[in-house]
Amino acid sequence: MAMNADIITAAVLVIGDEILSGRTKDKNVGFIADYLTQLGIDLKEVRVVSDDEAAIVEAVNALRKRWTYVFTTGGIGPTHDDITADSVAAAFGVGIDHDARAMAILEAHYAKMPNAEFNDARKRMARIPFGADLIENKVSSAPGFRLENVHVMAGVPSVMQAMMDAIAPTLKGGRHMISLTIDSGLGEGIVAGPLADVQKAHPSVVIGSYPYIRGDIFATNIVMRSRDQSKLDTAASAIEAMLADLKTQQQAQF
Amino acid sequence: MAMNADIITAAVLVIGDEILSGRTKDKNVGFIADYLTQLGIDLKEVRVVSDDEAAIVEAVNALRKRWTYVFTTGGIGPTHDDITADSVAAAFGVGIDHDARAMAILEAHYAKMPNAEFNDARKRMARIPFGADLIENKVSSAPGFRLENVHVMAGVPSVMQAMMDAIAPTLKGGRHMISLTIDSGLGEGIVAGPLADVQKAHPSVVIGSYPYIRGDIFATNIVMRSRDQSKLDTAASAIEAMLADLKTQQQAQF
């Protein structure tokens, strides 16, 4: 895990019993993965933990020390099982209390809503660790927060996505990773051997093979990733040549 | 994380750069979560790591020591980036080689397939750590394996699901967790306060609240989980009474 100056890395921490029980199917990891790839940031690790302070503290501390950025989702609502803010404060060893900026945002929000009292439960959403910046929430007001390199976001996908848009301009993007996909039309067992040779000859391009099944067809997408367009193009030409050879061999068998 | 004799726990380890880049959206975690819940096994942690031996070894060793069972997905195909079997062998400190049982299965499989040679790449799929049991693959033959409490499965969902079916009879199921969902019809900020009181009064029932947005409606599902039906029923009655009170209060405001 050598660090390189222009490689920016990230981890996602999903917090919530409902994901682990299967009751809710996570949609946030895939969204954040795509989003970070677009920004040129490498997502390196994902963890899902339960609504348990010790588990959250351990994961936050492991991930924030290892990667450039950490993004958490879930556990910042008004109920007793929303313990993310308190757990992140504990992970950093800082205090937490109702935050004046967050209280003002929520007060204004509930003032506009008939029959929605700004009660103690809702005030819990203004609990922010000392020293954190707020993350704007254009969907439902209650803010997330950033403490050093840890970004704490909501679990509801539409809210999380709005928070990512608020965070994006504050991130230093790495150089963009460019990717290129070739559908080989061949089974993974056929392409595997020659593909390993192409990988050896082009070490600065990351080459992956992804088998798929559609109906009766077993075939393989080959994906190349690099930050350097010319190296990507050279590897792609090598793969096209390799596939042409393999198809000639296949036809010769009939 | 106290261990209780009739609590059986598990972790899932997803291995693959394609999930972290966003190119492939994971469907295996949700399936395994549901499956384990049905078996009465508590999924406690999920990790996603890249195709990197050091990362896989660290995650396998952290998870296998902490939880009853570990289930991995991905990285057991025939290509150079399929390094799960070798990494799991390294995590356990055991050797690995072509396994006679796996070679026989794959030989028989490819003998039936015209134009599919049982080449060196495909023979890679027979590399199994010493001391492991095979996990049957009814979809595409290449087996998974179990080493102590770690179950190594394919990443392609249909293959992984067939392997789970093969594994299930070998697992000691915990007592089934029973769950009950009540749609409160109310916002999370309204139910949060009284719900915390119900949770305090019923500590052996795990009560979660899950806000949802459907069109213009912001409301909350309340989910109760317990291994004891009568305790679950008692908590459910308390929540029904709480919701009736809240609705009376809401109507009184008009």
Q: How confident is the prediction overall: mean pLDDT of chain A? A: 91
- Output the radius of gyration of chain A: 23 Å
Strand content range of chain A: 15-25%
Task: Quickly name the level 1 CATH class of the largest domain in chain A.
Answer: Alpha Beta
The CATH superfamily of the largest domain in chain A turns out to be MoaB/Mog-like domain
Low-confidence stretches of chain A: none
Instruction: Tell me the helix content of chain A.
Output: 40-55%
Main-sheet strand order of chain A equals: 2-1-3-8-7-6
Q: How many structural domains are formed by the residues of chain A?
A: 2
Count of β-strands of chain A: 11
Organism (chains A, B): Cohaesibacter celericrescens
Protein name (chains A, B): Competence/damage-inducible protein A
InterPro entries (chains A, B): CinA, FLAD1_M, MoaB/Mog-like_dom_sf, MoaB/Mog_dom
Pfam family, one (chains A, B): MoCF_biosynth
How are the elements arranged and paired?
The structure is a homodimer of 254-residue chains.
Chain A lengths: L8 E7 L1 H4 L7 H12 L2 E8 L3 H14 L2 E5 L10 H9 L3 E3 L1 H12 L8 H4 L3 E3 L3 E3 L8 E4 L2 E4 L3 H11 L10 E6 L4 H14 L4 E9 L2 E10 L2 H24 L2
Parallel strand pairs in A: 1-2, 1-3, 3-8
Antiparallel strand pairs in A: 4-5, 6-7, 7-8, 9-11, 10-11
Descriptive notes:
2 copies of one chain form a homodimer. Chain A is built from 9 helices and 11 strands. Chain A has 2 domains: 9-170, MoaB/Mog-like domain (Molybdenum Cofactor Biosythetic Enzyme, Chain A), CATH 3.40.980; 178-252, Alpha-Beta Plaits, CATH 3.30.70.600. The first copy, chain A, has a 6-stranded mixed beta sheet, with helices on both faces. In chain A, β6 (133-135) and β7 form a beta hairpin. Chain A has helices spanning 17-20, 28-39, 53-66, 84-92, 100-111, 120-123, 157-167, 188-201, 229-252, and strands at 9-15, 42-49, 69-73, 96-98, 127-129, 133-135, 144-147, 150-153, 178-183, 206-214, 217-226. The longest helix of chain A has 24 residues, at 229-252. Chain A is an alpha/beta fold and 254 residues long. In chain A, 41% of the residues lie in helices and 24% in strands. At the A-B interface, α1, α2, β2, α6 and α8 of A face α1, α2, β2, α6 and α8 of B.
